[in-house]
Amino acid sequence: MRDDGTLRTRLHPVGSGSGALTAPRAAVRASVVALGLALAMVPTACAQPPASGDGGQAGRAVLAAGDLSPEAALAPRAGSTLGENDDEAARFGRALGKYLAGRAAQHAKDIPAAADLYADALAADPDNVLLMRRAYYYLAADGRFDEAVAVARRTVEVLPDEDFAPLLLATDAMRRNAPNESVAILDGLPPRGLNGFLQPLLAAWAHLGAGDLEAALKALDPARGLMSARRLVDLHAALLAERAGDAEQALERLDAYLEDGPPENARPLELVAMMLVRLGRLDQARDMVSEFVAAGPVPLAISSLADGLETDGAEAMPMLVNDATDGFAEALYHTGLMLGQGQGSETGIVLMRLALAVKPDFPRATLAIAETLRRMERFEAANEVLGDLDASGQPGLDYVVQLYKAENLEHLERIDEALARYDALAEGHPDQVEPLVDKGDLLRRAERYDEAATAYGAAIDRMADGDPTLWAVLYRRGIAYERAKQWDPAEADFLRALELEPDQPEVLNYLGYSWLDQGLHIERAVAMIKDAVRQRPNDGYIVDSLGWGFYLLGRYEEAVRELERAVELRPQDWTINDHLGDAYWRVDRRLEARFQWERALSLEPNEDKIEAIETKIDEGLPPAETVVREVAH
């Protein structure tokens, strides 16, 4: 069957430089996966307590939520009077209620509510370290840095072995221009979990802030043992050496970084290219950026960088890392990006917030927070973050912010507002196709197919014939035409898309199934769908198309085999269950056929299909030759 609900190709990325919206790059995916394994024990406010302790009050108080019930976790500690009189009992009840509400907010990914509730719970039970850990973590995630630092300071006083709170204290020290204090905090951290990766980077910049390049480079050594960290360590080593004025060592470290190839995403590319220019390697920087641009869609920041490298003043590249504080923020930012794209979304946000605490004028970190919130489906919160971002005087950044706001409004089902923003962006940026494509996607999902086709057509008019994403917009427009019952232009778009991308499985499947649905070119359609299945063997929609093709060819046993597999892959799809029922009927498995039709009926099929399914349940199917003749006609 056709799957037009999700199109897997994103066009013309405009993100913060994280690479999150760029064309997939295998090295990036491998690095993120490896980092995820390395950070499997990332400490958060909900982390497990240290294995050892002094056995006293603090050790008894630090209990993760998974260890005890909420009531036990918040129960009175030994020697306390909490709960011994009515006032204390009421206070315990308040703490427990706020804690439970905070957990609910946490699971709903409502960071501001979780921060408020855990802070309120701590106010009611101020000696509870579990509440301290949750409170400082979520206060930091909500951008309430000073409050978070105050709670983190209390936490380490009660729990000296705490892993995460010292990162806030070290960040606060750098913010106050006290690098020696930051060094003392970071050098005392054990290199476990997240700190095994992040502590060396932060300690290196703190040592540089204290004026010691040798100690800074040595601080990086513990992270070199992590496969996923080595490249980032080399990049920061080059940045450290350059900031210290050691051009020879900066080039040596930069060459070590480039031994494994050019940067895989936007921010490292900017940093490396600008360093190369300042270190006298302009041509190398130009070649590197040109190769990145040629590989596919790129963020606007890289387009601007490519243009800047071609000007006469290219040697005057701006400094993205001006001092040790900026470098400290970059380390937090880079780590936050990798965590935010995986399973550590909230920790990624916390690290971005710490980067902004050190470097308030860091729009990429703000944008990355919004991107992470979008992935968490917290679209209103993402727009609130974007509303705090000052994009004045930065046309590229303003474009990104407005595009994200429009997309967030779409997810919030504020359709008219989203369409108005897309129109304004398309008018104000005649060189960009993303607003028009996003507008077309929105209209298509709203089943306004004629308008969607028009929007896609306007985007296609802006695209060059050699654009690597042209096929995807043609595919989208073809879907809109097909849904609007304009088959001739739809077929033309699908065929042109296949000329540009001959093996594209989504297009092969959609066109192949459409031909099957109309009884056209069945042999060719089945061959195309076989090719799509070969590339996507676990895609239930495409496997269903192959099974249905076999059915129309009268190859019923093969149809049953493929359709059974399709139902396993997509058990909740009514069309696939209906198809399997038809195939069962043809191989005389009548009881199973009726079961599948009843199953299809229970899955809320389209209104215009209900009567036909009910008729099949009551009467079965007509003779096979009649079906073939009608389909072929």
Automatic annotation (TrEMBL):
Region of interest (Disordered), ranges: 1-20
Each TPR repeat, start to end: 471-504, 540-573
Protein name (record): Tetratricopeptide repeat-containing protein
Domain of life: Bacteria
SMART domains for the chain: TPR
InterPro entries, A to Z: TPR-like_helical_dom_sf, TPR_2, TPR_rpt
UniProt keywords, alphabetically: Repeat, TPR repeat
